[in-house]
Amino acid sequence: MGETFDLLLRGGTVMTPGGRAQIDVGVRGDRIAALGDLSQAAADEILDVSGLHVLPGCIDTQVHFREPGFEHKEDLETGTRAAVLGGITGVFDMPNTRPTTTTRAAFEDKLARAEGRVHCDIAFYVGATPDNVDALADLERLPGCAGVKCFMGKSTGDLLIPDDATLEAVLRAGHRRMAVHAEDEARLRARYDALGDDAWVGMHPVVRDELTTLLATRRLLRLARKVGRRVHVLHVTTADEMELLAHHKDLATVETCPQHLTLVAPECYDELGTLAQMNPPIRGEHHRAALWRAVATGVVDVLGSDHAPHTLDEKARAYPESPSGMPGVQTILPLMLDHVHEGRLTLERVVDLLSAGPARIFGIARKGRIAVGYDADFSIVDLGAVRTIDNAWIASRCGWTPFAGRTVHGFPRMTVVRGTVVMRDDEIVAPPSGRPMRFWETLAPDEGEDGVA
Asked: Does 138 participate in catalysis according to the annotation?
C-alpha cells in the first residue's frame, strides 16, 4: 500500500529547483509532502496534469486593487479573482487607496477586508509619507506587510516623498527592502506645466521622459548607499536606468513590467490611445530592447504587472486629465508564456522572475519553489494552448485589457493555492480562501508548527 495524500498531481512536467522533471507531486494539508514516483499512492483528489507544466505559484508583487476608496474600479475580491484566473497565486497590494495605507489602523482594515474575500494569498504595502516616518519601522513588521512603498514622483493618489531630506529619513526608518517608484517630482511638475493645449497621449513618454526616471534613480541609489538600506526599484523602463542599476546589485533589486516588454511607442499610443497610458510610460524600441537585455543578463530580478485599473469612462478623458494605469494581473503570465514561445526567454527564467525571485528578494516564507515543506502553490500551464485574449475573459471590475485581440501561445489551465484547486479551465472552482503572506524577517521565533515557520 502506497502513501496517502490530500492532493496528488500526476503526469506533468514539474519545474523544480533542479530543473524540469517528470515527477508526481503529493500534497498534505497546505504543503508539498512528497516529490517523485507516486504511482502507488492514493489521494482524496488526483489531478491529471499530463501534457502540462507545473510551475511554482506565480506571485505578482505590484498590484493596485483600489480598496478602500475606489471600488468602482476594483476591489480585493475582483482583483484576486482576476489573479487566479491568470494563474497567479499571490499578490502584493499597493498603499495608494483612500484612505492611504499609512497607519496601523488603515493596514489592519485592509487585512480585515481581505478575510474570506480574497482568492489568492496577499500582502499589503505600507505607504511612506512625511508624517509617518517615525512609525515606519514598526509598520513594516506588521504580519502580512510586504514592506514600505515610497513614491518619489506623484502618480495615482496622494503619497509623495519629493525631497532628499525626507527620502533619507524614510530610508533610515526601517530595515526591510523598500519598494520605490522613482520619478523626479520637480522635473515632472515643470514638464507638465509646459504642456500646451495641443497635448495628446502620445506625448506621455516625452513629458515623463528618460531623464525624469534617471534623475530619481540616481538620487535614490546615492541616499540608499549612504544609509545602507536595501531598495527595490519598481517598473524600470529605460536603458539608462538598467545600465546604472547593473552597477548597484549589492543594494538594489529591479522590476520591470510585461507592458514595457510587450508594447512599444509610438505604435501603442496610436492604437490604444489612453489605454496605453501608465507611469512610467511605455517607451520606444531602444528602451524595450534594453529591458529585454536586462532580463537576459539577470539585471531584472522580478516582473510585476503594476495592475492599476481605471474605468473606460475615466480613461476617455482628454490627456493629460486621463488617469495613468492599466489592468495586468490576469495577463502577466499568459504574456510571458507567449514570449517563451517566441524565444525571448526560457520557462525557467519565467519561474525565476515570477516565483523564485519574489520569494528570494522579499523573504516570503515557504513560497517560490516546488520543494518538500513549501506551500502547495502551483500555476499549471499549457504551453501548447493558443488563445486570443478578450475583454470578456477579464475579471477586473474595469472590464478591459490593452491586450484584447492579442493571440498568445501558452495559457494557465489551473491555479492551486496552498493545496486547494481554485481555478480550472477559466472557472473559479473554490470559495475565497486566500491568507496574508508571511515573511521571514517578521516571523516570531516560535511561529509555526513545532517552532518552525
From this structure: no
